[in-house]
């Protein structure tokens, strides 16, 4: 034992731990296939929304330019400088204000999706045939 290198026991312990972890990981493997092919297993919350989104996303994205991909104008730069000049507490207040606006937008969007569901907006003509 005295002839062993210092730390060799720790290395052996690490190797055995690594081996146990790999064996444990292999016992956790599942061959179950979880996909959306079965409507009974994975029903759509809003009927027709998946097809609607697939049709919506199939439009070419190259024609639309994202709003954050444009160059900053003078007004944008001024706004950035104003934000940079804020104290920490004011900046936190501004972030909270933006969070509240985003939450309200989410609530409104949820209402509109529910409204579309009740008006059968997401129901396609293909399902009628």
Automatic annotation (TrEMBL):
Q: Name one Pfam family in it.
A: LIN52
Q: Which GO terms describe its biological process?
A: regulation of DNA-templated transcription
Q: Which family does it belong to?
A: Belongs to the lin-52 family.
Question: InterPro entries of this UniProt entry?
Answer: DREAM_LIN52 (IPR018737)
Q: Which domain of life is it from?
A: Eukaryota
Kindly provide the name given to this protein in its UniProt entry: Protein lin-52 homolog
User: What organism, scientifically named, is this protein from?
Assistant: Psylliodes chrysocephalus
GO cellular-component terms in the record?
DRM complex
């Amino acid at each position: 034992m005295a002839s062993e290198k210092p730390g060799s026991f720790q290395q052996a312990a690490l190797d055995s731990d690594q081996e146990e972890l790999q064996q444990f990981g292999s016992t956790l493997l599942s061959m179950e296939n979880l996909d959306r092919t079965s409507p009974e297993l994975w029903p759509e919350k809003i009927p027709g929304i998946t097809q609607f989104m697939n049709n919506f996303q199939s439009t070419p994205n190259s024609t639309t330019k994202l709003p954050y991909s444009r160059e900053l104008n003078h007004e944008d730069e001024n706004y950035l400088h104003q934000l940079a000049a804020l104290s920490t507490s004011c900046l936190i207040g501004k972030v909270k204000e933006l969070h509240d606006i985003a939450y309200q937008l989410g609530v409104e969007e949820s209402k509109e999706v529910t409204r579309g569901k009740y008006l059968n907006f997401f129901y396609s003509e293909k399902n009628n045939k």
